[in-house]
Structure formats: structure tokens, C-alpha cells
Amino acid sequence: VSTYPVWGWGGPADEPSRADLEALAPLVAETTGVPVQDPLTPAPLPEIPPSARLGTLPPSLRELASEDPADRARHGLGRSYRDLVRALRADLAHVPDLVLRPRDEQDVTAVLDWASSTGTPVIPFGGGTSVVGGVEPVGLDRAVSLDLSRLAGLVEVDGASRAVRLRAGTLGPAAEEALKPYGLTLRFYPQSFERSSVGGWVATRAAGHFSTRLTHVDDLVESVRAVTPTGLWESRRLPGSGAGPSPDRLLLGSEGTLGVITETWLRAQPRPQHRWSATLAAPDFATGADAVRQLVQAGLAPATCRLVDAAESALTGTLPTGEAALVLGFESLLLPLGAETDAALALCRDAGLRVVEAGDRGAAGESWRSTFIRAPYLREQLVLLGVLVETFETAVTWDRLEGLVTQVRAAVTDALVRVCGGGRVTCRLTHVYPDGAAPYFTVLAPSRRGSEVAQWDEVKAAASEALLAAGGTITHHHAVGRDHWPWYDRQRPEPFARLLAAGTAAVDPVGILNPGVLLPRA
Ligand SMILES: Cc1cc2nc3c(=O)[nH]c(=O)nc-3n(C[C@H](O)[C@H](O)[C@H](O)COP(=O)(O)OP(=O)(O)OC[C@H]3O[C@@H](n4cnc5c(N)ncnc54)[C@H](O)[C@@H]3O)c2cc1C
After folding, report:
1. CB-side exposure of 223: number of CA atoms within 13 Å?
2. Is 302 in the pocket of ligand 1 (CB under 6 A)?
3. Relative to the CA of 306, which of 139, 184, 237, 393 has its CA 20 to 30 Å away?
4. Is 479 near ligand 1, meaning CB less than 6 Å away?
5. 280-308 burial by CB neighbour count: b if 16+ within 10 A, else e?
6. Per-residue pLDDT tens for 274-324?
7. Centre of ligand 1 from the C-alpha of residue 478, in Å
8. What is the pLDDT of residues 461-491, one digit of tens each?
9. 3-state helix, strand, coil in the chain (%, to 5)
């Protein structure tokens, strides 16, 4: 029986065969520069007996429950490199005792009531694409995974305010499909779009593919509705409000610790009428970054503004010339784009960049986007071929950007030599702001079979230390989860940490909601 549903990104037809992998191997070795290994054969699922740790479940919850071993195995892991490797090796140390799939809000309330009365930890699960250990029951003597997939779909459209009410379990493609008949789109495309959920986006403060203006889901959220162990938490629908700290902003990024998000109103938009894209070449990353800074500080807001370093540019086929690439895209609903795009090109030329191609929907922009969405499929193929491949990201103000990129590259390169005997780290800017940018790093290295997780943990710790030391945040959009907690704890003000702990205890007095995330383990 295939274990692809436990570790794979796609549907059954997407599982790479041994022959596929063998055919791909030479290309991977050539483009990544990392020696490949014989394709790994995924381990069979071990026996996962029904759990006796939960006691007797009330009959109303029994009909929501799944004890299926593969289902439980899948719900104990997210989608980081360490998750993928552990799933492939059937190294399943943390498996929830049960998966519960509520049909409606009443079911969610019933689950939280039962969990509070029995002290059972509950881990909300949207699409399970967390890359920071957000859904894994680590350090808990028992836990249930609360899978929101049945709480899905479009509930309401307010055409006048151009806002839509979506249930939390709706996945990206289903949300877009439901909005199509209304001529609307969320235009929110994280790379995990295919598999991640609206509720997960809100719970993790996810960021989409667009580089400026509406970057994080925060910018789309009008109100949030969540079930907490002590009652319903629903913020009022408002275009803006100055009434004290905001109830919906507190739920944003709460990662399942303040309540189970069941619905949200999001701002939607019509599809843009005008599109333009360009690829430019920069002699080096620093020159490209300076051009990008000037662009956004001039008030230009390209929808796509990805500065990719020379190595990654060659690797992804964005620009094979050994130069850094800047992929620019502008979009407009109503007004033609000429003035903005002319200004952007002139500014970039003055800043020392060379225009490779430009025009309506440039080919390079399209190819870059399709590589972006296909990346999770490619990643699992690389891992099967013994390549350590993972990403991490941050944000920092412009004054510290160059220093951060240099220091992080150096720290990670050193760690790779020490831990893997070599490897490479590439960098791109994914999101840009007038006052700073979000550098995103990709690591490729030879893995040592059986030690992949320990290898990555060491490299990741070196990267995280370097990020904090250079003034960055531990995450711009991947969230905190269990993996980032030690660094998150160091970057936040102490009174704020105490406030968060006290607030969490107020809505969840027993401490059942995703213990170990955002707060120290109980
Ligand atoms: C290949 C890949 C690419 C990615 N690209 C991006 C990207 O471009 N941008 C980005 O921001 N992130 C990205 N991520 C990370 C991840 O997809 C996001 O964090 C996403 O928002 C998680 O959504 P999900 O529905 O999968 O949530 P899950 O992984 O199921 O859960 C994430 C966290 O939120 C909590 N949670 C989930 N649903 C709810 C709910 N309804 N109520 C309360 N808590 C809840 C969970 O308990 C957990 O702590 C990527 C991940 C992968 C594997």
C-alpha cells in the first residue's frame, strides 16, 4: 500500500515512481550541483494500534472520529523537510490519538467542551502544510487533531462591500472556484495554495505570492469568527476601526492557541484587466536590492517584485547568465499601466539593471510562476534522491538588509560544510516594503541517509541564530509553531509574552489549545 497520502504533496497520480526518479537524477545533479543518491524507497506504515489513552468518547463525538493509521500518521506531521523525511522513513514518534472532523460549529464546541473536561490537547488542522511543527503533538501524553476540512465553502458574498465569508477549512483552489461566478478573486497565492486552508492562513498570518501592498492575509481579513473553550469570539465586520486593540488582529497568527477559527470575512477583488511583466538582470544582488528599494520608495507597487540571486536564477531557469534577476509584474484593474511600467524601467536602468524582456505577460514571469507552484512536487523528488532541500525566511529593514544577507549566507555555508560536507544557500527577496524587505533562503546540500533530520536541525539552528543576530525576525510568514519557538521567545518583549500567556489562559483555562505553540510547553 502506498504511503504517498502520508508524505506526498499531490494526489495518487503524482507519486513519483522509481523510474521517474532515476530519469530525473542526472538533471538534478547537474542543476543543483549536489550529488544524488539511489532513490529512497518509502518505508511501509508501521502498525499504529488504536489508542487507549483518551478513555471513552461521548457518542456525539464518535461519529466525527477517525482512528485510521494513515489518517493519524498524516495528521501528526506538517510539510517541512524534517516532516517529509520522517514520513518517508515512517519515523512517526508523534501521532495524534484520534482525528476528529467536525461538521459544523456545534461540533467544534462539543469537541472543546469534552477536551476541556478531560484535559485533552486539541490541535487544529487546516491543510496540514505547516513547515514549523504547528500541527505535531510533540511532548504531549495524548492529543486529538481537529481537522477542519468539513467546515468548508463559501457562505456569503457582500457585493456592495466586496467581501466574502468563507469557512475555515476551505482550501485555496476551492475558495477561488467558489468566487469565480461572482467575478471575484482573493488573489492570495501562497506557494502552498493548493493544499492550505483559509483558516490556516489566518491562524499563521500567511503571505501570498504578491510582493507589495496586500502581502499578508492580514491585509485581506475584515473579521474572524472562532470558537474558544469559553465562548464564541467574533469580531465585528469593519473596514477599519480605532477602538482599542483589535479582536481580529489578536486572532491573526494565534496558531490555534486562542480558539478554533471557523469562519472569516475576507476582502475580495475583481480580476485585473491589465498585466505586464518584465525580467531584468542585475550585476549583483546588492545592486538589484538597491533598485528594488528605490522602486518601492518611489511609491511604485509592483504586484510581483522578486529579486533572485545569480545562483538561484540559474537554478530555476529565470536567467541563465550568471546575473541576479529581478522579475517585475504590474497589474491594474482599470487604468492602463504605461506610466508606472515606464517609470519602473527607467528607474531600474538608472540603478544599473539591464532589461532582458518586458511586455504584456512576459514569458519569464509566467515560467517563474509555474515553477513556483510546482516547487513542492519537485522538492519531494529531490528529497527522495538524497538532496537536503529546505527554505527559511525573514524580514529586515533596508539599512540592515545587506548585512543580514551576508551574515546569514556565511553562517549557513559554514554549517553546511560542517554538517553536510558542502552545499549551497541561495537568496531571493519575496516581499518588499518601503522600509525593508523579506529575504527568503533556499538550502541545497547532500544529505546523509538516516541523519537528515539531525543535519537539518543543526543548519537551521545556525540560520536562526544568524537571523536574530543580524536584526531580522525568525519568520516573515512561515509562522512560529514548535520549531521557531525558542527564537520567537527571544525576539518578543517580555511584558507582551506575559500578556499572551495570561490572555490564552483566560480563553482556555485548562490549556487544551495547541500546547507548545507560541507559549512554552505546559
Ligand atoms: C511547499 C510549501 C510552501 C509554502 N509556501 C508558503 C507561502 O508562500 N506563504 C506562507 O505564508 N506560507 C507558506 N507555507 C507554510 C504554510 O502553507 C502556511 O503556514 C499555511 O498558512 C498553513 O495553512 P494550513 O491550512 O495548511 O494550516 P495547518 O498547517 O493545518 O496549520 C497551521 C497552524 O495553524 C493552526 N490552524 C490551522 N487551522 C486553524 C483554524 N481553523 N483555527 C485555528 N488554528 C488553526 C494549526 O494548529 C497550526 O498551528 C508553505 C508550506 C509548504 C509546505
Report:
1. 12
2. no
3. 184
4. yes
5. bbbeebebbbbbbbebbeeebbbbbbbbb
6. 999 999 999 999 999 999 999 999 999 999 999 999 999 988 888 889 999
7. 8
8. 999 999 999 999 999 999 999 999 999 999 9
9. 40, 20, 40
